[in-house]
Amino acid sequence: MDLERRLLDQAAPGCRALRADRCGHGLGWRHTAAAALRRQHQALFRRGLPGRYLDLERRHLEATAPGRLAAGDQARYRLILFGGYDGAYLGDTWAWNGSTWTQLNPAAAPSARDTDSLAYDAASQRSILFGGFNDDAGRLGDTWAWNGSTWTQLNPATSPGVVSTAWQAAYDRASRQLVVFGGDPGLGTYSNDTWTWDGSTWIQQSPANSPAPRAYGSMTYDRALHRVVLFAGVTIGSFPRTTWEWDGSTWRRR
Description:
This protein is mainly β. The chain has one domain: Neuraminidase. It is 10% helix and 38% strand. The protein contains four helices and 18 strands. It has a four-stranded antiparallel sheet with strand order 3-4-5-6. A four-stranded antiparallel sheet has the order 7-8-9-10, with no helix packed on it. It is globular and about 45 Å long.
């Protein structure tokens, strides 16, 4: 059986523990194949061998259309899942502890949405959610943080705004910043903007080189290279399969 499918079947039983019509959520969770198959998921957050990564976040656009995103909360050894779409936009929060899914009831939460970016910020030990889409508000440009018990809306001095959704996002351990790239503005074009989150605000980067505009790609941090790696995605009329690395200041094609 395909390794990705084995890990997905093991790590994301949301299709069984939640409801079958919520299948296809993205998992913003990267670890080595060997560790993933050997250990329960709590151990996966603690370990992670260099040189390999596995990104289940929207590997296939058709399979992940419901737009549910999850982030590995390494401080609390949980996988946090928020929102999505199952015929209506969702605003629920769930946690996976290595054996079961539990619906959480935070005092505050973002509005219902899908196609947001959600990634764990190890520097602040919080999961950061940005943007997304729902029918009532259209494209969203708000920033939220999950601290393990509730969501808090943040008010950064600068922000990518509402220009895009379906960003690629990953935490850059080398620079201790969250990186988001690209997106789908919904205007018949795609973005190739790069933004970083420094813990208090968003900063637009001006790299010397950038990947082609895209959305729905896979992005993760490679511990062996000490770089964020971007692969594939969707753009106008094509599905790029190129691989790029972010070194903290610019993108380089592999």
